[in-house]
Amino acid sequence: MAVLLAACAAEVKPSAPDAAATSGPRCIEKLAGSGGTEGTKAGPALPAMALPCFSGGRFTDVADLGGVPTVVNLWASWCEPCREELPVLQQLAAGGKVRVVGVVTKDRHDQAQSVIDDKKLTFPMLEDQGQQFAIAASPLVSRSLVALPATLFVTAEGRIAYAYQGKPLTTDKVRELTQQYLGVSA
After folding, report:
1. Chain-centre distance of CA 162, in angstroms?
2. CA 176 – CA 136 distance, rounded (Å)
3. Under a CB-based contact definition with an 8 Å cutoff, are residues 4 and 102 in contact?
4. CA-CA distance, 177 to 183, in Å (whole number)?
5. Average pLDDT per run of 10 along the chain, which is 186 residues long?
């Protein structure tokens, strides 16, 4: 898990479609293996695109979020329900049974950093200023992910098993959804 939480280094801007290949450390390492997905239904694959690490550095290919069951949360500092559920996701991440990845969406970097600091968030973060990830993933889950918060439950195979939008996630609700869609008791 320590590898997943490694900070990204100097900011690198993409210059070509192969942005995921830029040099420097990654905020999220590609993991091999599987587990915890028995009994889950296959869903659509994550969109093929790269997003920058929130803290700068190398871009991360969203497809690399496979390898282990993963919860991807799209959030912004101006979204009060997002702020309410972030501590629940931090607790899930700290449990170590699933990977949690935040995607800071259409937000000012300094304001998002303030929330990260205030909520003491340690799970990896990507940045989606133009909402490209939210827009690309929306047709895959038959709902608009630009309405925040939005949470994707992604299997170890990199498939979107479920997209949740609604009331802020509670500890009980996130445990229920993680068990139901990822086959993991969190």
Report:
1. 13
2. 27
3. no
4. 9
5. 31 34 56 48 86 87 88 97 98 96 95 96 94 93 91 95 96 97 92
